[in-house]
Each structure stands twice: as structure tokens, then as C-alpha cells.
Amino acid sequence: MDHGVDGPFNRDQGDGPDQDFTKGPRPAPGPPGAGRPPYPHGHPSGGPTGPFQRPPHAQPPMAPGWQPPRPMPPVPPPHPPPPPLPIPPPAGEPRGILWAFVPFLTFGFGTPFSFLYAALRNKSWNLGATAAGYGAATGMAMLLTQAESALFGALSGIMMLTLWIAGTVHAFAVRPSAFPRGAPHDARNEHAIRLAKYRRTLREQARALAAEDPALAHELRIGRPDLPRGYDDGGLIDVNHAPPATLALLPGADDALVERIVRHRAEHGGFLSAEELAVDLDLPPALLPQLAEYAIFLP
Questions:
Q1: Cα–Cα distance measured from residue 233 to residue 221, given in angstroms and rounded to the nearest whole number
Q2: Does the keyword Magnesium apply (predicted)?
Q3: In angstroms, rounded to a whole number, what is the distance separating the alpha carbons of residues 153 and 145?
Q4: What values do phi and psi take at 188, rounded to 5?
């Protein structure tokens, strides 16, 4: 198709797609407010049309070169709370409550016997004298009941009532000293004691197994905490095969003793028992029981 000068894409008129918009003078901008208003038929809110006006409550325009303020440094974390106070050991359980109720439950007749029991249990002469006094008063009250006089009978009743009430109050008053609280039991300490005894049992079982079947003991790696294993021997250490770092775990073993053990193994072979180890290396006698508890000597 031939596009002439008067064709639809006339370069001189600037209507075609090949027009170069980067060349030629640009039209000068008109005055403010000139051009097509944003709302030809009026503002939707009913206000006047025209250039945008800043509302009176808006902030003024920012000056050139203005920068926002730097962010505040991070707030340091609050001080950590103080560590919790150690849990006080539990108090011992109260004792002697049933003993203190004996005078009340027996209407005063058991008061001498309850105080006599407390005197024998604590080896207390004061409680023994108290038991004798209550016994004499009880015996006198019973003798007065044998009399035919009404006065003696009333006196006997008053004495038994006094023994009943006074004996009960007295028993509760002396109970803390006659039956002191037992020693407090700490669950953590009891668990630690049971664990230590359990590991001692494991060591004894491992020794018996090693004495019965040394090859199986080597396979289970008894006395070798430096190697991966699944058998718990209770903390035994094989003096004849363990490396120096493991030998240092023995009780009382310092660097000098470990070096002497390694040198003796290289020159003379392994040991047969803790006694031989103590004799060959001239160890102090106080160290022998500690070594014998954790040392094992596999061939």
C-alpha cells in the first residue's frame, strides 16, 4: 500500500506511529489551574473545582534536604529476675500425736502409763517422776471410790477429772521434747543415694561378668568409657587398656600416676589387681580402696 504525502501516516503532520517525540520543541506548561479540571461537572462533595488545596490541618511541605529522625536505639532488655531461692528442706513429720491422745482417750487412767513409756523411751528422769506422780494420784482416786462417804466419792471424781484434763494438756505440752521430729528427708538426696548404690551394683555385676567371660567383657567394652558402647558397667575403668585421658578419671590419679601406669604397661605388661598396681607403683595405702572400687584389670 502506497502511503503518500497526504496519506494517513503523514510525518509532517505528526499523526503517524513513526513520529519522533524526542525531537522538536515541547509546549510550554500553562498557568496553574489550566487544562482540564479533574471534575468537569463539579466536585462529588459539592465543593469548588480547581487545583488541589492542602487542608489547613495538614503538615507543611518538607524543606529540601530534610531527613527523618534517626531511629531510637534499642531499649535494653530488663534486668533478669533474681534466681529463685533454694527450696528449704522439708520438715520432719510430727511424731507422738497418738501418744498425746492416750490420757484423753482413757479418761485419765492411761496417763501414768503413757508418761512411763515416754520416760523409758527418752531415758528421762523427769518424765519418770511425772509418771510416778500421775500413778500415785490415780491410785489415790481409785481408793477414794471405795469409801462409802459421798464426800470422798465427789473428791475422787474431781481428782479423775483433773487427771483426765491435766494429763491430756501436759502430754501435748511435752510431746515435742518427748517425741522430736524425725530428720528431714530430701527427695533429691535420697535419689542420689539410691543411684550411687545402683551403680555400685552395676560395677559388681560387670566384675563378675569379666571374671567369667573376659572375651565378652572386651566385646561389651567394660571399663572403656572412651569408646561407644551400650553396656553400663557403673563407671569401671580398665587400667590395662584404657588411654591416659581415661586413666585420669580414676580417683586420686594425677598426671604423674597416669604416666607411671602407661610406662609400666609398655615395659612390663598389664596388672592383675589393684594390690599389684599399688605394690609395683608404690602407691600410698589410702589410695588403694578408691582405686579398687573403680579399677578393673582385663587380660
A1: 9
A2: no
A3: 5
A4: -70, -40
**CA angle 57–63–64, rounded 5-degree value:** 150
* 231-270: pLDDT as tens digits: 999 999 999 999 999 999 988 888 899 999 999 999 888 8
Alpha carbon 29 to its chain centroid, in Å, reads: 79
The set of cell numbers assigned to 97 is 500425736
CA gap 221, 29 in Å, rounded: 95
Q: Give CA–CA dist 146/21, Å, rounded.
A: 143
- C-alpha cell at position 269: 605388661
Task: Answer whether 0.85 is exceeded by the pTM.
Answer: no
Which positions ≥6 away from 256 have C-beta within 8 Å?
A: none
pLDDT at 155: 86
Vertex 198, ends 196 and 201: CA angle to 5°? Answer: 115
pLDDT tens-digit profile of 78-105?
A: 555 555 555 555 555 567 888 889 889 9
How much is the pLDDT for 55?
54
Strand 237-238, strand 295-296: pairing: parallel
